[in-house]
Structure formats: structure tokens, C-alpha cells
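Changelog note: in this version the structure field was regenerated for every chain. One regenerated record is shown below for reference.
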Amino acid sequence: MLQTRASVAKDVGPISDGVHRSVLYLDVPDLAAIRIALDGWPLVVPERKTFYGAHELSFADPAGNFVFFASH
């Protein structure tokens, strides 16, 4: 997925600050196992449903990469 900086700032403001090194978007069949695995880990953006119909969980890894898990 390609987005302009302005689009990212509007859609996912917390990652538009330039601190994160990269963004990884992983399509998974279900978020249930991801919720369990990330229990207690701070989410950068709360779980959400996007305008294009994806259910997403997202966090920043220790190296500063931003990771989305999405179920469509």
C-alpha cells in the first residue's frame, strides 16, 4: 500500500511523526491470536475498522518499526 504523508497523517496520525523506520502491513485470517500475543503490549493505534473494511491492530516494535495486523 502506498500513501502520501498527508494521507497517513489523516488516517493514522501516530505514525506520521517520522520516528518509525518502516511500516509492515500483514494480512491475517483472524485477529484473535494476535490479540492474545499482543496482550499487555502498548498499541500505537487502538484496534479499529478502517473505511476500506479491514479490522486492524497495530504496534511499534522495539526497533521502531510500525506493524499492522489486518483481517479483511
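Spot check on this record: The chain has a mean pLDDT of 86. Strands lie at 23-27, 43-49, 55-60, 66-71.
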